[in-house]
Structure formats: C-alpha cells, structure tokens
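new request in #modeling-help
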Amino acid sequence: MQKIDKVKRDKALELLKSGSDSKLLTHLNACVRCGLCAGSCMFYIAHKQSKFIPAKKVDLVSSVYRRYCTSMGKIAPALVNAKDLDDSMAEEMVDLLFGSCTMCGRCVKHCSIGVDIAYIVRKGREMLSAMDMVPASLQATVDSALRTGNNMAIPTEEFVDTIKWMEEELIDEMGDNNARIPLDEPHKNVFYTLNPREPKFFPLSISAIAKIFYAAGENWTISSRFYDVTNYGFFNGNKEQATVIARNLYDEIHKLRGNVLVLGECGHGTRANRWEGPNYLQKSYDFDMTTAVELIADYIRQGRIKLDKTLNKELVTIHDPCNLVRNGGLLEEIRFVVKSAADNFTEMNPHGNENYCCGGGGGMLAMSEYNDRRLKIGEIKANQIRATGAKVVITPCHNCVDQLSQLNHTYKLGIKIKTIAELVADALVIEK
Amino acid sequence: MCWYHWIAITSLIFSVALFSYQFARLVIPGRPDDLSVSSGSVTKGVVYSFTKAMAPGAKESAYLHMPTYAGGIIYHLGTFLSLVLFFVLLAGFPSLNNPLRTIFSVLLFISFFAGFAILIKRIINKDLKSLSGLDDYISNVVTSLVQLFTAIYLLVPGAEILYYLSVALFFIWLPLGKTKHLLFFFFARYHLGFFYGWRGTWPQKSE
C-alpha cells in the first residue's frame, strides 16, 4: 500500500519551496558530492558503508529539491541527479536521516565547501514529519512531553516525592534545616530546569546542583510541572510540537516570575531552548537564559563557591556534548569549570569542536530500532575514552551520560560518568 | 568576430544572467533572522569561515585526503585560469606572447590531468560512485574540456573553433549543474560563519 499520497508529498515539498530562505537555498545547492565528508562521520567510520556518507544524506533531500523546485529537475531530472519523492525515497530518508545521523555537525566543520549537512538532515526530518513518517519510538517521546509536560511522562506526584526525598538528603548532608530544593516558588532569581532522566534515574545529580546552589546562596526554584529542559520536537522535525514544548518553559518562568532561565545539563535541551526557542516562538525572550555550566563558572569566578580540587583526585576527561560545544560555543567554559574542580585532567583526542558525538544524539537514544547502530558507532567514543586512561568522564549532558553508561557496560570501560554539577559538588568546600 | 565567438559570448551571457538571478535570490532575503541572543560575533565568525577554517590543517576533508585535496586545488586554479584566459584570448590581448602561452598551456595540461584523475577516482571508487550521477560526470567533463582545449588552443591556433565551443558548453552548464557551487560556495561559507559566529564557536577563543 502506498505510504505517501499527493497531499502528504505536497506538504513535505512545501518545506523546500521557501524562496526567501537564503540559508536553505544555499545548502541545498552547494554540495559537490566530493565524498570527503565520509571520514568525518562516525556512522561511516564504524560501518564502512557508502550509504552512511553525509553527502548521501544531503543528496536525498537536495535531489528531491531539484526534482520539484528547479527547472532542470522538471525538464531533465536525470541530468541533474533529481529524484522523485516516492515511498522508496521516503523510506530511505527515514533510515538515513533519522537512523543514521545524530546531527552532531562534525561533518559540517570538515566539509570542503561548508555545507550545513546537519541543517539539511533536519530539513529532511521536517519533510518526513510532514508525511507522518517519524519513527514511532521518537514520536512517542515527543507525545509524552506534549501530554504530560515531560518526555518520560513522570507524574507530578512522583516528581514531587523525588524532590522532597532529595531535599531531606540535602538537609542531612548539610546539617542545615534551611537547605532546600524549592518547588514552584515565585520571584526567584534562578528558574532551574532538569532533564527528566534526573528524577527518573539520576536523582543524585539534582542533589548535586542543589548543594551548589546552597553553597552559592542562590535564590532558586524548580517548577513541579514544567521542569523539562529537553525538547524532542527538535529531533522529530515537527516545529509546531517543538514550539509547544518550548512555550511550556517560557510560560512557566513568566508564571513564577523568575529572573533567569537556567538550562540544566542537557545538550539538545540547551540548543532547543537557547538557540531555537525564541525562533520557534517567534519572539525575543524577555528574561535571561544561561546554562548550568556557565552559572557554575560564574559562581567560581565571583568566589560564591569555593572548591578544593584535591577532593577529585582521579584522572578525569571531558566528553564534549555536540550541542553545547561545536554547536553552542561552550568549549572553554566547560574546561574552566572542570579544571577548577578536578586535580588531574586529560583531554580526549580529538576533543572540543573536533569531538566525536557519543552516539546518543539526534534522538538516537529514543529510537530503540537503531540500538545496534547506536552502540556500534559508540565504539569510537569508547576507544577514545580508553586511550585517555581516565577513570572519570565528565559531560554536561544527561543524554550523553545515558549513552556513555551504556558504552561503559558494552565495552567494559570501567569508568565513572559524572555531570559537571556532580564533579563540582564533590569538590565543594562548605563554610559553616 | 566569427560565429563561434558569438556562441561563446551568448553562453557567457546566459551564465551571467542565471547566476545573477540566483545571486539575487540569495541576497534579497538579507541577513538571516535569529531571535536568540548571540554569544559571539557574526563578523568574526564569517571572517574565520573564509580564512582559518579553510586552512588545510583545519579540515579533515583536506588533511586526511591530501592527494585529492591537492588535485582539487590545482583543478580549481586551472578553471579560474581558463576563465581569465577566455577574456584575454577573446580580446586578442597583445601581450600574450609565445613563452607565456607555453607556460599557461603547461599549467592547464597539469590542471586538466588533475581533473581527469578526480574523474577516474569517481568512476573506480565504490563510495564516490555510489554518490555520483550524470551531473557529477558532466560537470567534470565540461570543466576539464575547457582546460584541455584552452591548453591546446594556446599552442595550436587551428583549434580555435573547438576551444570556443568547449567554452560555450562550459558556460551553459556552469549555472545548471553542480558547477554552480562557483556561487553557492561563498554563501555556504557565509552562512556557516554566521551560524558558528553567532554561537561563539568561531573563532575558537583558545586558538
């Protein structure tokens, strides 16, 4: 049975016909298919199959563009590599644009021309979304966020219980009944957000950031309803859904009259809120926005927290989340914090803007149908980590933590994986 | 001027007209709209994109593939030399004496062979072949032919008709095939510089 009819195809093609989008027009026309991007893509490196070359992914989208949006493609499609958007093309797009790309952007930096390959992949995902062809597992994650306010569908009562439990732990650890994890309190300076993996699987990372806020004397709160920093609408290619999710946080900080939206340790969540959020909502935000990493760096610089890095003696290395470093400019800030909190530090090779994705980005962690591929590409990261000899890997992204934990198990790395807040919390000197 | 001169000139006008149209489409929308708060400098990002980010040591597409990269650079230099020589030869520029003709001819033979090698690689390399369609072969052939016939015409005046016809073919294909990256390359670098500059990734502060 035909999967895509004319109505669906027209909706998808409409996304390519934006004549007033210079960036889109540029990147759809710039690739010369030199294939030199192959060696920069972890899918190609791990699998050595031609179909994983980034240029191939670009060509899927641009060949459809040429077929329907250019005169030559309409008159003589074979001459200009123009192709029909039919069922087989759409299925290939699903496999390669959803299942074979984390949109990490490593190939972009190394492209001989400068084609924003990840941007074109995202455009292709938007086309597939318009044709209702998002992988069901990824769509289910988005649906959970739309339905419940967080992508793991954690009931509010369960979340509140976890926070209360962490608060009791904090009070015990600090020996201070004033140590708090404030929920839904208005007029606070910091409106903090979390990756739902934290309350679900890693509650200690919540107590770590709470400990840092306590030490810094910060005036902060978390919303019990809209605390989710993630936005899988960025991955499924549905801008309307991404906008609804971004608006949840926008409305909540207004409701609680917070000053600064602090994005918890999540790569794509930071990107989706900081860089894409205002564009989804089509308005400049009237509050400040920063990341947990930058906030902690400020505390250190301002002397609001004191650290004893000898408390973290083990050799640590950094895994740079693609959306925070290559696509977010936080390379130096992450290193400043880690070097302030750890006594023994080494870099991966390559690292920073050259870093390899952990393999869990682009929504891959949510798409169980691609688990084998995800773990296979992760071997590159596992080998990088092993080569450093580090005992602890620091990464300011909970999705990366999740993927690295699976790599740790699969490739028997024997490492600990920590967020920035956890590393800093371990080095805190609390003056009483 | 003879009929083949006019064919080449008409093709050039076609090429310029189409590129002008594409240029207008790229420029008229203006600077990209971004409502987020920048943490870097677009100007510095764009400058970096056209300079340090293009250095062979900055791109795996260059330093992991040095023979191909070097061949590509030579091939592109040959293409630009052919373009310049087209105007020089069409104008019958008097200073293009015999030694100069010989030097240019040798350079163009070299660049032609670089292009030919790239074509052969596209045909025999499994990965590249899987990426390729008619456009890739046509683009290489029309560009290589211009270089070859320019090189020949510089030494053998009798090859004039073939030379001008090859130029005409090149100008017609230039804005239609992937050869249009002649224009889009610059916009791709601009948009990439804008993207990374806006977010403070380029220029890298620790460099």
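bot summary: Residues 401 and 417 of chain A are 6 Å apart (CA to CA).
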